Amino acid sequence: MSIWHIAWRNIRQRALASSLTSFSMALGVLLVTAVLLVHGLVSKSFSDNSDLGYNMIAGAKGGKLQLVLNTTFYLSEPVENIPYTFYQEFLSKPQQEEELALMAPGKRGDLKDGTFAKNTEFAIPVCLGDYFQNYRVVGTLPKFFESFKAEDGENLKYQFEEGRNFETWNDEHGYFEAVVGSVVAQQTGLKIGDKIAASHGGDPTDIHTDSPFTVVGILEPSGTPNDRAVFINMEGFYLMSGHAKVEEDEEVGANVSGDTASRRQPLPIDQREVTAVLIRTSDPFSPIIIRNRVNEGNVAQIVMPVMEITSLFDLIVKPIQTLLLVITTLICFVSGISILVSIYNSMNDRKRDIAVMRALGARRETVMGIVLWESIILSVGGGILGWMGAHVLLFLASPSIEAQTGVRIGLFDLAPLPRSLEVQIPAVIIDNSWLGPLCSLELVIVPALILLAVIVGFLPAYTAYRTDVAEALSSSP
Questions:
Q1: N or C: which end of the chain has fewer CB within 10 A?
Q2: Which residue ranges run through the membrane (predicted)?
Q3: Quick one: 218 and 143 in the same domain?
């Protein structure tokens, strides 16, 4: 019979004590795994989503982190707006003319190439401040869903589960079309063709009932904050009450296609503001040029979302994670002590068995190895149960977590490596189809449990090693 089988038989003989000891280890590992998994996946989601296809955000001067949280994650409130003319600084004259084609020429202002047009691949304005129920309403342009590419660089990042992208103007709905995120559609039951009215500043009593938007598209789940947002045509956003510097409700008798049906004129340039501008630069040097020139002025500021989110995690979230890991690791260590106590207390009852084994020719090292194997089985066995339990619990809670944060947790998802370790591992290893998933701190748990088991099992194993055969046999009844 092998050493492993003997150790397993000894554990089965003390089934209740062994089960309770292993269960305490399972609870400790469950907590460690949960902390690693939740923090790792959430931080990775924040880091990944901090660059949703753009590398800069322009907004009003103030808190940089607040601007990122508000614009990218919809987690904060906008403080101030910036002039629409500042957004035009990132567009060429033909781009401006195309976007303002529905506006009367006299209200467009003096159109010319923007200062940063040559440095910009695309710029997308967003207007925030309204809500639909508990979800943020984002006023933007159709190019919001036409500019961002998926990881393959070919397909669009955002696909439609139903319907289509909203249009700047069409004969059926005018300026008032909307697209809703997957979570919004799931939680509210919105369908294609439904009409929605936004509330100003989240006030349920201040609803823009005079400007309802028709839902024309529902996004596929993307795992981003956009799953929890409602996107409306920015031209319609401007025409809602309270969204212009000076209220204007001018009607004209014909639209640009020559139809006789009347429509409201787009809001003039001098009455427009935007909350922020999402910018993707055309070359690696443009961010420095744009940031320095804009930040030196008094109109707006440029922030790098990745840098702000990284700073947030390094200064606030990472210390909290470290504290939780220390606490949960101490729990595992206490569980290891319980293994030591359990095995050590059983040594007096097992002296005769050990003496018999020695009398039959077993070496001291063999007896010591059996006790160490018992410690390893209890520690690793409980640890594996705890690891599996953490993944099952988080998988069951995944729908609720995704609804609140947009983070999906799969049953076999492993906690990703911290960025500080990722940069030290060649990308070819992380990106490899089968090596990538192995790059996780969770895989350190098993070796750590084995080491802990050897440490805590050494004292009872050494006691078994020093057992006097003659004394044990003579003192046995």
A1: C
A2: 20-42, 323-345, 366-390, 443-465
A3: yes
How many other C-beta atoms lie within 10 A of the C-beta of residue 252? 11
Same domain for 7 and 65: no
Span 162-173, pLDDT tens digits: 999 999 999 999
pLDDT of residue 100: 94
pLDDT, tens digit, 9 for 90 and up, residues 337-346: 888 888 888 7
Same domain, residue pair 201 and 334: no
Q: What is the DSSP letter of 145?
A: G
Q: Please report the beta strands in 202-284, taking only residues with DSSP state E, as ranges in sequence order.
A: 213-219, 229-233, 251-252, 263-264, 273-274, 276-281
| Residue 400 pLDDT greater than 80, yes or no | no
176: pLDDT strictly greater than 70: yes
Residue-number span of the structural domain to which 124 is assigned: 56-303
3-state SS of 138-196?
EEECHHHHCCCECCCCCCECCCEEEECCCCCCECCCECCEEEECHHHHHHHCCCCCCEE
Amino acid identity for residue 444 in this structure:
V
Distance separating alpha carbons of residues 320 and 295, to the nearest angstrom: 32
